[in-house]
Amino acid sequence: MNKWIFSLIVGIFFQINAFSQDSTQVIRDTIFAPDAPRITFTSNTFHFGNLKMGNSVSHTFEFTNTGKKDLKILSVQTSCNCTTTLLEKKIIRPGEKGRITVIYTPKPNQKNEQKKVILVISNAINKEELLYMTGFVEP
């Protein structure tokens, strides 16, 4: 009987480890922090197409607090000083939506394919989320 229980426990352990790290994290978060805030973006990527040097492009990323407690945006960081952000509000109540507007103005050395990364840090269970702006800068 003890061998059967041991085998069952080992089998469950290997099944849990078979999940990707993200899946395991979601399960862990649901079990240990079911009421925590959660930031859920409508989309985390914006492709701006072709952009002529000297022009700017902006996009607003929308998100919802799908958790059960207030979501606090602690920081929004960009990958270079060619990208700026505007945060609509820092505290989003459960069920409410928020917006982060990202403005990209290419520098003279930024030609061809570009990928700009924006890091959103919050008190959510998914503390760090990445946003992307991609496209092609023409001379």
From TrEMBL:
<dbReference type="InterPro" id="IPR011467">
    <property type="entry name" value="DUF1573"/>
</dbReference>
<dbReference type="InterPro" id="IPR013783">
    <property type="entry name" value="Ig-like_fold"/>
</dbReference>
<dbReference type="Pfam" id="PF07610">
    <property type="entry name" value="DUF1573"/>
</dbReference>
<protein>
    <recommendedName>
        <fullName>DUF1573 domain-containing protein</fullName>
    </recommendedName>
</protein>
